[in-house]
Specification:
alpha+beta; five-stranded mixed barrel; two-stranded antiparallel sheet; 7 helices; 38% helix
Length: 253
């Protein structure tokens, strides 16, 4: 049966001399895998549509096993991402995080929209660090991680100074700092941004300007939280960390 869907290529694996197996995250069906026969040939009509990060409409011959990609209509190649090594590194981490976090054929239109908008913002030159942090915070619930971000995880207080507690799974107020001697003493702007990224609608994103020191706090906190609770070990995360050090050295020069 032929099925048409809207999707984004999140993984591409060579198969034999001329074929590819691609994973597409679709609006209609969630994550699906398909064979793209001949897609490695530059002259193939499937060569462009099967590239990583490509957003488009896909016509698939479905079967009990792996489906077959018959044709595709590109909506966006996410060209700016593919032509910039730093954007590629961030986008690769985002699609691998999604790929490793969801099961096959589990429909989630909200998650599709989150993926599309995150990649599109990076493609349009929004801050890569911030877009990645927003995506990471939005993915927590998908992974079954539910940090308490709207009040103190210990006493329920909503006013005061706050820190982040990995052990207590959320923010804690200054009255409870001594109950977790290993709490992360973040700046209040970093706390506010963690809360904002977790709750707000990414479709309403405006221009966000964040100081480098605050970005470092966000990156370290989210990374530590993922390391503690997610169980994920992503190759793209190691590469992203390396490329980020390289980018920072360029910025300093």
């Amino acid at each position: 049966m032929l099925t048409k869907c809207e999707g984004i290529v999140i993984r591409s694996t060579d198969y034999g001399e001329t074929n590819k197996i691609i994973n597409i995250y679709t609006r209609e069906f969630g994550k699906i895998g398909v064979m793209a026969r001949g897609a490695k040939k530059p002259s193939s009509r499937l060569a462009a549509i099967s590239q990583l990060f490509t957003y488009g409409h896909f016509l698939i011959q479905t079967s009990k096993g792996l489906g077959t990609l018959q044709q595709g209509e590109m909506i966006s190649s996410m060209r700016a991402i593919r032509e910039d090594i730093f954007k590629t590194a961030y986008a690769s981490y985002i699609v691998e995080l999604l790929d490793k976090s969801v099961e096959d054929k589990k429909t989630n239109p909200y998650l599709f929209e989150l993926l599309y908008m995150t990649l599109q913002y990076i493609n349009e030159d929004y801050d890569m660090d911030i877009m990645t942090n927003i995506f990471e915070m939005k993915m927590l619930n998908v992974l079954g991680m539910y940090p308490i971000m709207n009040q103190c995880a210990l006493c329920g207080e909503k006013e005061g100074r706050f820190a982040f507690s990995i052990r207590e799974n959320g923010i804690i107020c200054h009255r409870c700092f001594e109950k977790d001697p290993y709490h992360l003493a973040l700046s209040q702007p970093a706390i506010k941004l963690l809360r904002l990224f977790y709750y707000f609608d990414i479709g309403r994103l405006g221009n966000i300007s964040v100081k480098p020191e605050t970005k470092k706090e966000l990156r370290n906190t989210i990374s530590m939280y993922y390391d503690e609770y997610s169980g994920l070990h992503l190759k793209s995360k190691r590469f992203l960390d390396q490329i980020d050090h390289l980018r920072q050295s360029f910025d300093r020069n």
